[in-house]
Design brief:
By secondary structure, this protein is an all-alpha fold. 65% of the residues lie in helices and 0% in strands. It is globular and about 65 Å long.
């Protein structure tokens, strides 16, 4: 029996039951691991051959749904010019100060890397002509618009498991309120989520991962470089993005050519320095004192573990903490099963576990931190959709329900759930 190379985008553990024969729709560029010798026939989950018109229509509906939810949340909180909180005002004010010739760390206080200052600078410049309130509003609407790209990238990363997994992951991310709350204003978290989603979508692509693992292709170096730059730019907005960047780096050590792993690491550092180096050079001691020393020495906010878990899973304060522990246990179980079933799910599960451990253990806890693991959580929810799709494949002759109707039902359920 021949043997093929297994890459992260492939289904490494595909054998479920040698008595069941499920038709396989394998991608043209997807390497397939042979079944073990003891199993004459393998049962594989359908992997998308290509992006169809129905796929584009489905993700377009989900993206529009995500935009609608975020805009509605912004409008219901007082409108695009309303005061929603403290942090988003700070980051936009920093951009205004910078566009007027002041420099963070040297001239005024900022306890995060300067990426958000640079990102929101165009809106601060626009505010000179249309007024600060209107520039602020345009900045918020731009963050809402940018969320569509993150939803799209989550969909792509979920499709590395199956078509149903991609739709489930994107739908969850589009409607998950822990994400909605931070993707409606000028905060840091939207860029952290975008960088993680971009890195996951790029490095788990079957074609890209095959080339990175084998060293084939003239432009192969480009993809780990772009993935590294994406997480590096995320770190330049918030240092927490360095955690998933490190997880992806360790993961690449197991399957990628060393030179491409080094390229990813170098691009991650380069993406951070591209934005941060000019500000560090102006005030090196103040930068490290405010961004590192002050952050690490912040006092405990007094949020205990049950309270944090309730927030992580978006449960109300009246809910018993045992339900949060139950959800955590179920999520871990899904992660374990998905990691056994699909090799690519292992890195998603690792990002979720480590990010969640950080959020639950750091002394300081704010509700916005719950979005930190949202991309990975969405991809694990996508794995549930992948298992559901596999179950449908096993029983489609008996059920007689087209998969397109199942997907439409999922999207419809999401819309109804949000409306009510």
């Amino acid at each position: 029996m021949g043997h093929h190379e297994v890459v992260p985008g492939n289904t490494e553990s595909n054998v479920i039951d040698d008595r069941v024969d499920v038709s396989v729709h394998q991608a043209d560029d997807e390497p397939v691991a042979d079944s073990p010798e003891k199993t004459p026939r393998s049962t594989k989950l359908s992997i998308p051959r290509r992006i169809t018109r129905a796929d584009w229509l489905s993700i377009a509906v989900i993206v529009v749904l995500g935009w609608y939810i975020r805009f509605s949340a912004l409008r219901s909180s007082g409108g695009v010019r309303a005061v929603l909180g403290y942090d988003d005002s700070v980051y936009f004010s920093s951009a205004i100060y910078w566009t007027h010739g002041l420099s963070p760390y040297r001239d005024y206080l900022l306890v995060h890397p300067p990426g958000s200052t640079v990102v929101y600078a165009p809106f601060a410049l626009l505010a000179r002509f249309i007024g600060e309130a209107n520039g602020y509003a345009v900045g918020r609407l731009s963050v809402v618009a940018l969320s569509g790209l993150t939803i799209f990238l989550v969909w792509l990363a979920g499709r590395r498991i199956s078509r149903g997994a991609g739709l489930a992951a994107a739908l969850f991310y589009a409607t998950w309120m822990s994400v909605v709350r931070v993707e409606r204003s000028t905060l840091l978290e939207p860029f952290v989520q975008l960088s993680v989603a971009a890195c996951a979508a790029l490095l788990t692509s079957p074609r890209i991962s095959r080339r990175v693992s084998s060293g084939e292709g003239r432009w192969t170096w480009l993809w780990p470089t772009v993935a590294g730059l994406s997480v590096g730019l995320g770190v330049s907005c918030k240092l927490w993005a360095a955690i998933p960047a490190g997880i992806f780096l360790v993961w690449m050590l197991f399957w990628a050519k060393l030179r491409y792993t080094v390229m990813f690491a170098a691009a991650s550092v380069g993406g951070f320095l591209l934005i941060s180096a000019p500000f560090i050079i102006r005030a090196p001691s103040d930068f490290f004192r405010l961004v590192l020393q002050l952050q690490l020495s912040r006092s405990d906010t007094g949020r205990d573990l049950p309270d944090r878990l309730l927030q992580v899973f978006n449960l109300g304060p009246d809910i018993e903490p045992k339900f949060a522990y139950l959800l955590l246990g179920l999520t871990v179980l899904v992660g374990v099963l998905a990691s056994w079933r699909w090799a690519v799910a292992r890195v998603y599960f690792a990002v979720f576990l480590i990010n969640t451990a950080v959020v639950l253990s750091v002394p300081v806890f704010f509700n916005g931190y719950c979005s930190f693991m949202s991309v990975a959580l969405a991809l694990l929810v996508g794995a549930v959709g992948g298992f559901a799709e596999w179950l449908w494949q096993r029983n489609r002759q008996q059920w007689g329900i087209p998969l397109s109707r199942v997907a439409a039902g999922l999207v419809g359920a999401g819309i109804v759930g949000v409306a009510y």
